[in-house]
Amino acid sequence: MKNLIILFFSLSLISSLNAQDENEDKNILGGSFSFGISKNSSPLNPFLFNNPLSLGSDGDERSTRFSFSPYYGYQANQHWLIGISGVISYQSDKQNTTFITPPGLIISDEFTVNSTYFEIGGFARYLFLPEKKFSMFIQPGLAYIYNLGIGKSPDIEVVRVNKKGFIANARPGAIYKIGNSFQLAATFGYLGLLLDKTTDEMTEEEVDGFSFITNFNFSAFTLGAELRF
Question: What is the model's pTM?
Fold first, then answer.
C-alpha cells in the first residue's frame, strides 16, 4: 500500500512537471527599453504644423529621449505567435531659437518641444525556423497611436498639437535562444500604412492624413529580451 501511494505521488509529480514544460513553450513576456541624450547643431524638427516658423538658431540642440515597449505573446503552434503590445515614449528637444508664432509674435529664447507617444495593439509573428537556436521572423501588427507635441518657451506655450489614428505595419526580425526560458529578439525596421488625424489644439485646425511609411535606419533597430513560461 505504501509503495502504491509513493508511485501515485511520483506519477502526479511527473505529470505536473510535464504540464509546466508544455506551458513554458506557450507564453512569452518580452520588451525593449532605450534611453539617450544627444547634442548636435541641427535645427529643431518639432512634431507640429507648418508653424511656428523658425527664423534661425544660435546654439546646439539638446535632446533627451526614452522608450519602453512591452508585449505578451501566446505560442499558437510551432510557427505562429499571437499577442498584444504597447509603446510609451517621450522626447524633449531644447534649442536657443528665434520663432514667429501664428499671431505674429516674435520669440527669441530657449525653445522646447516635448513629444509623448503611446501605442497599443495586437501582432502576429511567424518564425521560419522555430527549431533552430537562431531564427528569422516576420511580424505584422495593427495598433492605435496617440502623439502629443507641445512647443513652448519658458514663458509661453506656442503650440500644442496631437495626432491619433491607426498604424498597420510589418517588421522583420530575428530570435536567438540563450536557454529554454530566455531569448533575445531584434527587429530591423518596418514598413506600413498610417491613417491619422492631426489637431492643433490652440487653433482647432484639423488635418487628415494617410501615408505609406518605411524606416530601415539604425534608429528603427530594436533589441529586447523575452522570457518563456
Answer: 0.74
Distance of CA 24 to the CA centre of its chain: 26
Q: Return the HEC string of the chain.
A: CHHHHHHHHHHHHHHHHHHHHHHHCCEEEEEEEEEEEEEECCCCCCCCCCCCEEEEECCCEEEEEEEEEEEEEEECCCCEEEEEEEEEEEEEEEEEEEEECCCCCEEEEEEEEEEEEEEEEEEEEEECCCCCCEEEEEEEEEEEEEEEEEEECCCCEEEEEEEEEEEEEEEEEEEEECCCCEEEEEEECEEEEEEEEEEECCCCEEEEEEEEEEECCHHHEEEEEEEEC
The string over 141-162, giving b where at least 16 C-beta atoms fall within 10 Å of a residue's C-beta and e elsewhere, is bebebebbbbbbbeeeebbbbb
Q: pLDDT tens digits, residue range 40-60?
A: 655 544 444 344 444 445 556
pLDDT of 23 strictly over 80 = no
Residue pLDDT, tens place only, 103-132? 555 656 677 888 999 999 999 999 999 989
Mean local confidence (pLDDT), 224-229: 94
- State pLDDT tens for residues 167-177: 999 999 999 99
Residue 89 vs residues 4, 19, 36, 52: alpha-carbon distances, Å: 59, 38, 12, 24
